[in-house]
Amino acid sequence: xxxxxxxxxxxxxxxxxxxxxxxxxxxxxxxxxxxxxxxxxxxxxxxxxxxxxxxxxxxxxxxxxxxxxxxxxxxxxxxxxxxxxxxxxxxxxxxxxxxxxxxxxxxxxxxxxxxxxxxxxxxxxxxxxxxxxxxxxxxxxxxxxxxxxxxxxxxxxxxxxxxxxxxxxxxxxxxxxxxxxxxxxxxxxxxxxxxxxxxxxxxxxxxxxxxxxxxxxxxxxxxxxxxxxxxxxxxxxxxxxxxxxxxxxxxxxxxxxxxxxxxxxxxxxxxxxxxxxxxxxxxxxxxxxxxxxxxxxxxxxxxxxxxxxxxxxxxxxxxxxxxxxxxxxxxxxxxxxxxxxxxxxxxxxxxxx
Amino acid sequence: xxxxxxxxxxxxxxxxxxxxxxxxxxxxxxxxxxxxxxxxxxxxxxxxxxxxxxxxxxxxxxxxxxxxxxxxxxxxxxxxxxxxxxxxxxxxxxxxxxxxxxxxxxxxxxxxxxxxxxxxxxxxxxxxxxxxxxxxxxxxxxxxxxxxxxxxxxxxxxxxxxxxxxxxxxxxxxxxxxxxxxxxxxxxxxxxxxxxxxxxxxxxxxxxxxxxxxxxxxxxxxxxxxxxxxxxxxxxxxxxxxxxxxxxxxxxxxxxxxxxxxxxxxxxxxxxxxxxxxxxxxxxxxxxxxxxxxxxxxxxxxxxxxxxxxxxxxxxxxxxxxxxxxxxxxxxxxxxxxxxx
Lengths: 353, 341
What we know:
heterodimer; A: alpha/beta; Glutathione S-transferase Yfyf (Class Pi), Chain A, domain 2; Rossmann fold; 4-stranded parallel beta sheet; 8 strands; B: alpha/beta; FAD/NAD(P)-binding domain; 2 domains; 5-stranded parallel beta sheet; 7 helices; 28% strand; elongated
């Protein structure tokens, strides 16, 4: 009964995702914290699928973090986003691929605002023109990069060298998916599968052989919540939300968490380390922490990429337990080596190694 | 009295009105899309406020239409109707064309599809059911979880699809509060060791004996009433439902484990009624048929000769529906007399 009910919901939230010719916009943080994610996406799209993905170096932050931190006014962020659309127009693209859920939420909020309040759109056109002399068009198709990976999830499955299956037991891995609040909670129609039972990540998990874990705090915030973290005095609130979420999933013994949003990944990964340091609590089995990977990193593992080329070592929670379960061979000596073979410093207190 | 009237809908309103008109000598063709008459009530177990067995009402209504002046067409849908002279030609999907001096629409309501409130997980979590599902369990005298066990802790969520802007229904369905109270009492009777929690926005107990039933639920049956809406439902490792709500009287968020959740699904204009409206018959913001006058013409439509009865105009209980059907019959009799003059 459950899956039939979910399929019915998913059928109502099937968004159109463009097939090719994307104007790609970057995230502020993901290139720094888990750089393999973007590398996988671009390589997969351009070299595996032969798609056209265009980047413009003049693209900037969307200022979403400042907006949600109450330091960037709405008129300003609308103008910044309008500038991105102007760059896209100048490059001759109509499909935008957004690689950050915060940005995706900003873009959807602004486009919906313009739709409902056309005067805001006209004001933004005027602001942008006065500031830069540029003009813009609203994209014809707007996809988050996870939407695009979702669209091609079966192509990835067909090329799979590793599946989300415990090679020792033959059982599917138990995978927690976290789509991030700003992906579809504000506007469910923009998300694959809506907001309550989203399919964007669970569709990938199913296609790649894993089992999706449903747990009581599945919909809960990762803990970031912008002001919860950005205002230093609130950080206890941030970490307590993360702890609440992990305590709720712990009885299900998840093998892996897959995140949609760079911010969520950072907090679900790094706060696990902090909680362990604070009081020794861990949330995985055998005293381990739960690896928290992006959908692109998981796609890379499924397709047989080297875990260190994917940059899994840049996470706070290390992925070795997951790699062993999936039967992925790796050489620990290569973990902190540069591409040309030089040894980098090895961080102290790595967890899960 | 002579004349031909087509009544669309063989539920409470349609059957009662057909019976009343037939008694007055009018020839009535009663059209029902299902295989048998009775409408929603035939699926119900007991009625509020006196816990009458709904079968008694269905039997009464079926007796009403045992009349030589009534031709009953079940399993029949209309394709539409068209004006011809002073009357109408009503067409069925089976190719029949019926002459009518007047048409009475008694197309009733559809229960709100609870799966649209995705956050409650109806159709996804095994033990989230609707008020209609619970009535079916009562009829079988077996209130059980999916695994066959008896539920111990049961939550009842009011206003599912009613007074809900997100669901597109701003109106109150009016019957769900008292249905919840009635079902809570019956749950306590069926399962004496159970705990029942009703989550409500307001208790709208405006009907005769409703308030007394509500008091009885609290004093005699120890039903817990919590003022606050449930925001989401999930399941834990033990397959218990976990809800988040707000207790607005205590001013606190609340989290609770339950074995079963019953959703008080609201009433919506029926799809069949909407189809027949077809942009010609006036419907309101609530999508129900809009009567010509809320005070003096609640049975009259915006087209001369088209009348309404029952819940195709607004949520109503059985008593109100029967009264509305009788007044529709009187309006039609007046109308037929006027056109014969």
